[in-house]
Design goal:
The chain has 308 residues and is of the alpha/beta class. It has eleven helices and six strands. It binds iron/sulfur cluster.
Length: 308
């Protein structure tokens, strides 16, 4: 692999175009760093912690590092997040959504610890029971399990740092200014995927799992080909998805006349069992259907991920 040099602010048109976003004027603001548990946001957390300690983030009066748990991550992701926390002294805040089943009552959050993190899908079930099973055109999981808890924990006078790279510009939210979201890997550091790989190659530890196992293991944004590999790694990676189909496919608000039509999580109106059957068989589709390389970032444009 050819390692390209990191883009510098002076010659990176993307950084020049968006640079004003990183200036927050005379307001004193907290920087709330969203660590999603992947290699990219881990690198961002490292860079921001390093620069904060060096006194270089003078735009902000304080900094915090936050991980919002979905309860459906690979066990090694949880190990990795805690290792980063310990190695770099992030004082990481572990957040979990508190879903209120009552109508018109929004999601709140609670602070938990690494030892008490939900890992059995309960958070996902509570979300699906109220809002329905998510899919490529309906994404309450990211919103209710990550974005809302993080935004509420962060408060108003704060900026959220999101780990989206220079090679993922199409994932920048069109609402990032009004929502006080910033993308330091793009605006400040000029980091691309190759830079992330190169940096982690030199570290004494890393995520330790194939990237296809990142985010919620069964995530519907992954290609069928990747989902097949996820299944092969451990069929239990789909247990939560199977339970979602079994218990919550009719949950959530429905259009008139569709109250009894189950919502399917996977593309092509496929159930989890359909996908398992397909990826464990010799389906041509599972070999051809693309290759999602994105991560599930709160405040990212998940629905616009490309499957190149
Ligand atoms: S990783 Fe996928 S399933 Fe999990 S919260 Fe994000 S979009 Fe939803």
């Amino acid at each position: 692999m050819v390692l390209l040099p990191t883009l510098q602010p002076a010659n990176n048109p993307v950084q020049i175009r968006y640079r004003e976003n990183f200036k927050v004027g005379s307001r004193t603001m907290k920087l709330s760093v969203s660590f999603s548990g992947g290699s990219t946001s881990g690198y961002m957390a490292y860079l921001l912690k390093r620069d904060w300690e060096a006194g270089e983030l003078t735009e902000y009066d304080s900094i915090e590092f936050v991980f919002a748990n979905t309860g459906a991550e690979h066990p090694k992701t949880y190990e990795f997040v805690e290792r980063c926390n310990q190695e770099w002294g992030l004082d990481l805040v572990y957040l979990e959504a508190v879903i209120d089943p009552r109508p018109r009552k929004g999601t709140t959050y609670k602070v938990v610890t690494h030892d008490t993190l939900c890992r059995d899908g309960r958070l996902f079930y509570e979300m699906a029971a109220k809002y329905g099973v998510p899919n490529n055109t309906f994404g309450p999981c990211t919103r209710e399990l990550k974005t809302v808890p993080m935004d509420k924990y962060r408060g108003k006078d704060a900026m959220t740092a999101i780990g989206i790279r220079c090679d993922e510009l199409d994932r920048i939210s069109s609402r990032y200014r009004e929502n006080n979201w910033t993308y330091p890997l793009i605006f400040k550091y000029g980091v691309r995927k190759v830079d992330v790989y190169a940096w982690w190659d030199k570290q004494p530890f890393n995520l330790g799992i194939n990237q296809l196992l990142g985010n919620c293991t069964f995530c519907f944004h992954k290609s069928f080909h990747k989902l097949g590999d996820v299944y092969k790694e451990n069929p239990a990676n789909f247990d939560i998805a199977l339970n979602l189909d079994k218990h919550y496919s009719l949950a959530g608000a429905r259009k008139l006349g569709q109250e009894n039509t189950p919502r399917q999580m996977y593309r092509g109106y496929r159930t989890t069992q359909d996908v398992i059957d397909m990826v464990t068989g010799d389906s041509e589709l599972s070999k051809r259907d693309g290759n999602c390389s994105g991560s599930c970032e709160p405040h990212g444009e998940q629905m616009e991920l490309s499957y190149d």
